[in-house]
Please model this.
Amino acid sequence: MTAALGVPHLSVAVMLLAPAVLLGTLAVTALLGRRLGERAVGTLVRIVMVASVVASGTALVEGATRGWSPVVLSYGSWFSAGERAFALDFVLDLSSLTFAALAVGICGVVSVFSSRYLHREPGFYRYFVQLLLFTLGITLVALAGSIEVLFAGWELMGLSSVLLVGFFHERKSPVVNAIRVLAVYRASDAAMLSAAVLLHHWAGSGSLSLLFTNSAAATAQLAPWQALTIALLVVAAVAGKSALWPFSGWLPRAMEGPTPSSAVYYGALSIHAGCFLLLRAEPLLSGLPVARALVAMLGVATALYAARTGRVQTDVKSALSYAALTQVGIIVVEAALGWTTVAFVHLVGNASLRLLQFLSAPNVLHDHHELEDEVVRGGVGSLHSNPTVKASPGWYLFALERGFADALLDRIVVRPFRRGVVLLDRMDRVLVGRPGSGGEVGP
Amino acid sequence: MAEPGHAGDGGEARFPNEVARGEKGEGFDTPIGQAVDATWRRVDSRAATQSEIGRLVAKVGHYLPAQGPISVFIHHNTLHAFEDLPFEDAVVQAGQRFGCEPLLSERVYREELRAGRISGRDLEAVLALELGGGADEWLTAHVQRRELWRRVLVHGIPPAKGADLKWLLEEGDALQGLRPDLPGDARQRLAPGAGVSRLSAEDGTLARALWAACLRAVSGSPHRPAVSPPPPSCLRDRLLAHANLDLDESIRPVLIRFVAAFLDQGIAHVSMPGRERGLYACFTELYGHRLAGWCGDWAGELATLIADDRAMGQNGEQSLTNSLDDLGVPEIERVEFLVGEGLWLRGWAGMVHEFETRPDRAPQTAVPATLTEFLAVQLLLTRAALRHAARTLKWVGSLGEVRASLGAPLPAQPQTSTPERTWPLFQAAQLVGLNATMVEAMSGEEIGRVEAELELLRTAARRLFHEAYERRLRHRFYDAVVAGGAPRLPSPPTFQAIFCIDEREESIRRHLEEVEPGVETFGTAGFFGVAMYFQGAHAARGRPLCPVAITPRHFVAEDAPSGSALDRVVDLRAAWRWVAARARKGLHTGTRTFGRGALLTTLLGITAVVPLVLRVLFPWLRRSIAPFPLPWSSSTRLRLERAPGTPPLGEHWGFTLEEMGEIVASQLEPMGLSQRLAPVVLVLGHGSSSLNNPHESAHDCGACGGGQGGPNARAFAQMANDPHVRALLAARGIRIPEETWFVGGQRNTASNDVLFYDEDLVPHPLRALLAHAQACVETARRREAHERARRFESAPASWLPDDTSLLHVQARSVDLAQTRPEYGHATNAFCVIGRRHRTRGLFLDRRAFLISYDPETDSDGERLSRLLTAVGPVVVGISLEYFFGFVDPCGYGCGTKLPHNVTGLLGVMDGAQSDLRTGLPWQMLEIHEPVRLTVVVEAAPETLERVLRANAYLWRLILGRWVFFAALDPAGLRLVEIRGGGQIPYQAEEPVQSVLGPSRAHYADRRGHLPFVRVACPSAEGG
Model:
């Protein structure tokens, strides 16, 4: 028994500690002013990724031999106050291990890709710090057994995501768009945090096993309206993170970072993190028809909206992001219907395919010419948009303007938020003459 | 000395030429009005027949980037609109117009000075020329002009203004001591009687005394610092400055989305309805829809404006006039206003302009876009946003009044404060060794003179540095060319090889000559005189393969074999292709749809892991799966002969015999090949292939209009092998021996693969010789791969076996994660037009275009003139595009590739929605040295000058110093520079080193630019 339990402990430890230790190393060396070189960073990241992939593979195999009975690993509590404790719990079952394996696998492939793609980029170091943060975050989300762990992972993902959107911060629009993504993420994070607090308050514990694995226990401890409130908050968190309608406006804007980061976040993992959470919360949702109906509606709306919008996008990254989002919407519907396995397979398939498509997005001209040659010479008609598909101006405008989602969010969320920031900036300027501005007149 | 505000300090500097904000554009104060006038003269004549508004718009079009759709990348002078001006003025004025850097920053030049790339001698020479007779003038008792200029140039005055200066003075080390980099004599005079090792406390006292003296001196000086005019500002800047309203955020995304969708060439599955009606009509219909109000707060106003326009039944031109009237732009300001508007989204506006002027270059659909309509749409949006702004801010009055009230200049450039004025004087005083007493002894007038001199110097510094920077390289090149390589000619040659003029061919020619001393190599524009539309056997459509200035008339198709034995294989292959094509097409569109997408991703999505892992982790595997050359390429034939009927493109199917003869003669004669042909002549075009690289075509052959030159080489060989053509040529006195055979081929400049065509047609007696020639090319391409690999930082710097290098460059060309498949034309700097034996044996570091030209047979310069007309624009375009791209990688180039996003199959954007980014990406530029092209022509100076004067285009560029020409005496070792002002004989400065070959001995283990040397090959001596 101890030997069998040793494997989960070891693999979880490797998956979490390897990126964390490297992050620490990178942070310390940078603080000491001795940044590692490109080669060293590349090699270290490779080692970490290989270790994580091996660990997750081992855990999968071990899980299969156990017949996928869930294992909860408790590493004590973060801290406790009175009766309430913030637990460091991890759950290892089929879905958590599969998602973790998918996540570290994809992060591994992308880091190898990036170490060549970002060669000689001055932000190389920064990029990998953020990618490691992300790897750590998504592994935490995948394996979380308590809502505190989930929230920590969720936040790391969001943070690294925003930082990578704003990677080229010397230009204006990446920063503007990063702030937009941040605004939406914060809103959904607030929902997540509220869910955590309420769960503690009502159930006296943050254990996710309560919600995610055992619906009978959950209903026993929570009144239906309490469960519904928590479920709705989780859905709100999911909607922001997975860019479900009406939060979809930020998705195309997030394409400002280097191509591989767009691929891993908005093609493969980040966008599916919400779906994963939804699948984990299936036991909770299964008892709540209202919440399920709402989720299904969100999914349908997202899928239809994204399919319509994606068809008229004229840049390859936006087109791909809407293609990914269409399927995310469908996965959400599948989750709402309780088709967990289908949804999971769909999720893995969508993530893998979009990653490949995103990584080869700059190749679109090459592919297009090749495809055109093949199609025309192969006698399969023309490659070009079907002339019989005529969009009416209204529909076309709706799709081209991305369902006006941006303008709506602008009015409701982003503008008030930014007004505050501008105010702070102005105060900063008045109070402190910034070196480098050259604008202030001398003594 | 701390220099706060440098992008390079502490932070991550992406580009070496990043300039601190305070320093940006400093010292370039030229009114932009002149530029506008000068450049419009030419446009005006062309636009004589247009309407008033059409004329205005034509002027706007002139300033826009002239880069067409990216799949056919054609290098051109980024500053083509300023070509009428002298180079030095043009860079400044264009810099102001486009908000770009004119030259490298002083900091970069000073680093080059320290590194020895700029030598003291060059700086002296440039200064002597600049100061002329006034160099030795004494400004005051202690300050000589030349000395002041030299010291300030070499040591520099750290830029400091406003808060920076305040910090430096109060908290920094400016007054804590003297400059640490003072020349010995200056230090001696500042702190007399003391050694260098003085206590810093005393230094501090001296520095503070000097500062106080300078402050007093400046107050008494009659000099008034020149106030630079405020930078040109458009409506949006003023709105942002006065009302904190950012139009970039409201209307810019809408305009980008709209114009991108309108021009889209096939990324969207559903294209914009009604594009054939034109840009303006399309816009008013779409955005006149009641849903459009949802685009933003300002969009309500747009509906009103569009309704007004529609009610009046206006077209784009009338709408534009109407908008100008509504905005109250007076006639006299309209040009300036529209230019400012046009440059707002200059990439997109430029693409619209390209569609308007060159619809034939549209990749798929030549949608009817015009710049007038684009500007009309832009102004409609601007007016809507402005109206909304006026309402929000409760401004009353017409838009014209609002605009006028915004017209007040931006918060004026603050007056230069006294400490700001004192700072340069204080720094210069230290450098020339003026102590406090000396400064106090100077009269106000003298101080004023020094101040004026420093101001002059400030504006001239970058220009002078650049002159010195170029001068050094140019003179080293002159030295090498004058000295020459190994003048012994292999006679008779074992075989001959004709390459493109491309500077990337310099190295493979050199290696080939080192491998086989008996070979003779030649360079000619890589379309080999064959201007044609070409359709490959497996291509969906034809494309032009010739310089962009030529419109081809002939169409040549490559035919797949239709032999009896092959038929069944071909059928099978066709069936397979059909299946493959169906599947690919299904996947391409299917994965992006709703239902099919769901099925495909659920059922097949996971299989994407296989190609994903293979392509990312093992990129080189792709080469073994898809071997190059393609299996069918050898079995096809070119349909070259004239046939009746109308081809899909151009006027005629194929060439007549006379035309073929003309083409062959036009190539052989100038090269001096009309009499002495070897039995085997290789004709090698070039192209480049890479993955994940939207700029792939920028690596292709410039002389083929951004296409691959293999088919041209093949066509040329086929023509020259034709006995009928040979008969025609014999009548013209060009003797091609009966046994001689031409073999066409293509080299891939990324993967270094070489492919030969029609080998099966080579006569049997020559096969052994051909095999020998191919073996030599094989060795040469491996060595060349090794030489190229030294430039890639990710390739090991130490010695690699040839095979490993070849694998390295091959893997680069098929690697999805590789942003530098090759460096393209980077480092190009020179061009030599002359016989190869003048440069053979010289290591020119892949920096020189080499064009074969035999002056002996061209006494009147007729052929030279034709040659220059054909290749001049190509090489100048390449040189200047790289120059400006390097100088301002974000402004003139398209920045780093990492966030690039292909849009509409037309170009790239940065991220989600930006202006269309034109120019070259940094990954292609990073090893470049921005120097203007120097062309050395082997011809008598008089002949060359006559020919150049007759060539209006080149002579204008020579007068403006955009390009330099020099004549290399065919008979001797004399080199004469041909300048606008006359001929200047060149005196050799440094002897050229000799290295015992092969070339590897010189470049092994070295990454950077290398000196030009003579490579003496032991085996070559026997030749």
